[in-house]
Please model this.
Amino acid sequence: MAADPPDTDPADQDPRERGLRRRTGSPETSLWLVIGGIVMLGVVAYAVFALI
Model:
């Protein structure tokens, strides 16, 4: 089932969508953001150990 459009009247929204919005106060973290963070940590660790 499709999600409600952004400017839908609260009375017309699907109750399950309201429940999901209530539980998720922050935006979801993208998988690519997590992978990029791990790669960046690897690059920093490589640079630090290269200087030692």
The mean pLDDT is 75.
